[in-house]
Amino acid sequence: MPLEAALCTALGVLLAPLVSIIVDRAVEREPLVAELRCPRCSRTLARRALVPVFGLGERCSEGHRHWRYPAVTSAMAATYAVAGYRFGFTWQLWPYLVLFAALVAMSIIDIETKLLVNIITYPTLAGFLFAVLALSSPNGYSDGIAPALWAGGLYFLFFLVVHVVYPAGMGLGDVKLAPSLGLGVGWLFTETTAAVERMMVAVILGLLLGGVIGIIVQRSRKAEVPFGPFMVLGTIIVIAGTVPASL
């Protein structure tokens, strides 16, 4: 569905400044306001920094570039392209667009602060769970409810066990993120077994990506690498490679 993918990509770019504001406020622990700030010196950027694409080259008064905003724009464009290609203009597209925007925001925040903040993780889970329960049956997709719930529950349980056994390697924020990712994968299926299998693939991909890239970064930069973005990436890859059962 190239046309839908292209239009969703454009939508992702247009919404990127809004997601950047959310990331800014979460990182700085400040109320949500319509402004962007330099990540290095916290100086307020001009309003033109809110203009999609054209605002990416904007600098603060100290001349600093702001890496967050190109990262958010690129991630929004890529994930929205995946959603448009896989779902087209169907009823399932819209919940996944909201989910992907939240996942992009959480990933950027986690990279910078090593935290997955409750103010985003909880509403994301509640919102997508509501979509699964409220939108499935009216659209003739009631068979997708159970697979989504099973995948979400098992994803959460797996990371909860890992956190309990090895809390230094798996943060509680990752545990809170897990059920949203499981729901996102499981909702693509009408059979629970298939949903759980693909959920496990997403987990394995996240672990492999996190392990390999984490080792490389730690050896080259001696920096701690958060695991949340790799969980998200593994989930997005699985969703991108799965044809939704409802289509």
Please, could you describe this protein's structure?
The chain is mainly α. The protein has 2 domains: 1-88, no CATH class; 90-247, no CATH class. Helices cover 67% and strands 0% of the residues. It has helices spanning 2-28, 68-87, 93-113, 118-135, 145-165, 172-186, 192-221, 228-240. Helix 3 packs antiparallel against helix 8, helix 5 packs antiparallel against helix 6 and helix 7 packs across helix 8 (228-240). 43% of the residues are buried. The mean pLDDT is 85.
Low-confidence stretches: none
N to C succession of SSEs: HHHHHHHH
Determine the strand fraction and express it as a percent band: under 5%
| DSSP helix fraction | 55-70%
Distance between the termini: 12 Å
Shape: globular
How many separate helices? Answer: 8
Radius of gyration: 18 Å
Derived from helix and strand composition plus strand pairing, the structural class reads mainly alpha
Main sheet, how many strands, which sense, barrel?
A: none
Number of domains: 2
Describe the secondary structure blueprint for this structure.
Elements: H1 2-28, H2 68-87, H3 93-113, H4 118-135, H5 145-165, H6 172-186, H7 192-221, H8 228-240
